[in-house]
UniProtKB/TrEMBL annotation:
This is Katanin p60 ATPase-containing subunit A1-like. Gene3D superfamilies: 1.10.8.60, P-loop containing nucleotide triphosphate hydrolases. It comes from Solanum pennellii. Signal peptide: none annotated. Belongs to the AAA ATPase family.
Length: 361
């Protein structure tokens, strides 16, 4: 009965539509999460399918939720983001390419003094494409992509955080080459958390340092890609492990134009739409802010069309009629009136000062 339950669990996870693009083998991974969680992260003990089923059965006992939650939290299958989906940031793309993509293509070249960076930090204002870049690295490298945020690791998983951190790296090694994306890494050093969370984050940080150090002695290609909006919060120990540090700035004029074009790829535009003007008007907007402007503008025609109509009347309008409403310059101007930049000029000054302090290229 227990074996059957284990198989059902694996089958139901497979049925949640995971593709195999960035996950070497889901069933293996799921099994390893189960066994690693069960055994405090020692999945290398697991030798063959029969033993895996056995471990799954054991796991099925004391901590069924732990594995299910970890699995749900960290596996991002087929992130499907290409470099071209990301506007601008050519310098960041170049550095990431050198730090993370090339070592996978030329492992023998990246040896000794040229050994790959094990920890890379992206810092900058929120909504500027850090997560997108991490996903593009995984897509372009075809690596297994594990995506976790520090606040959930320390907060929601209180009591298990340290073990899960070990487990995370074990999973990463098992499925190398792997990109571990750790968002909100500053959380591990934040003073603004409760006493219990502080204790959890202290333990996770200590474990993380050990694990990143361990990567240097391993021939498995596992890279930690961390992101933060508060780089100044990171302590010296963490900074040292994240040797390569990349500033991800707000988009400049050219990048904003690119971003608008990416966002409006499949949208019908009215003849008078002036992308240059929208890009000029959005200085200081993050990529996320600008995406919101495009989204809002693209809805405006539909809003006008249904205004004052009953649901019955709306039902009688065909969808192609909506699809044929072009986005006008007025729609953009209206959206710009509503959506303001979320990053302040003071914040930008702070980032630029920090860039000279500990950025690298
Ligand atoms: P961050 O991780 O830096 O907070 P994200 O990568 O999550 O930001 O970006 C949030 C959203 O903003 C993305 O899903 C995307 O729609 C948009 N975005 C931000 N920067 C860019 C960019 N450079 N190119 C394309 N889209 C972007």
């Amino acid at each position: 009965l227990l074996q059957l339950r284990a198989q059902q669990q694996v089958a139901s996870l497979a049925a949640t539509n995971y593709s195999h693009n960035s996950i070497v083998s889901n069933n293996n991974l799921v099994d390893n999460i189960y066994s690693a969680s069960m055994e405090g992260g020692i999945s290398s003990n697991v030798q063959n399918a029969e033993e895996r089923i056995e471990s799954t059965v054991l796991y099925d006992g004391p901590h069924p939720e732990l594995a299910a939650r970890l699995e749900k939290e960290i596996l991002e299958t087929n992130p499907g983001v290409k470099w071209d989906d990301i506007a601008g940031l050519s310098e960041a793309k170049r550095i990431l390419q050198e730090a993370m993509v090339l070592p996978l293509l030329m492992p023998e070249y990246f040896q000794g003094i040229r050994r790959p960076w094990r920890g890379v930090l992206m810092f900058g204002p929120p909504g500027t494409g850090k997560t997108l870049l991490a996903k593009a690295v995984a897509t372009e490298c075809g690596t297994t992509f594990l995506n976790i945020s520090c606040s959930s690791l320390c907060g929601d998983w209180y009591g298990e955080s340290e073990r899960l951190t070990r487990c995370l790296f074990e999973i990463a090694r098992t499925h190398a080459p792997t990109t571990i994306f750790i968002d909100e890494i500053d959380y591990l050093c934040s003073a603004k958390v409760s006493a219990t969370e502080h204790e959890a984050s202290r333990r996770v940080k200590a474990e993380l340092l050990v694990q990143i150090d361990g990567l240097n002695n391993s021939n498995k290609m596992v890279t930690v890609l961390a992101a933060t909006n508060f780089p100044e919060s990171l302590d010296e120990a963490l900074r040292r492990r994240l040797q390569k540090r990349i500033y991800i700035p707000l988009p400049d004029f050219k990048s904003r134009k690119e971003l608008i074009n990416i966002n409006l790829k499949s949208i019908k535009l009215a003849p008078g739409v002036n992308i240059d003007q929208v890009a000029r008007r959005t200085e200081g907007y993050s990529g996320d802010d600008l995406t919101n402007v495009c989204r809002d503008a693209s809805f405006n025609g539909m809003r006008q069309k249904i205004s004052g109509k009953t649901t019955e009347e709306i039902k009688n309008i065909s969808e192609s009629e909506f699809l044929n409403i072009p986005v006008t310059m007025d729609d953009f101007l209206e959206a710009l009136d509503k959506i303001k930049p979320t990053v302040s000029a003071g914040d930008i000054q702070r980032y630029e000062k920090l860039l000279s302090e500990f950025g690298s290229s």
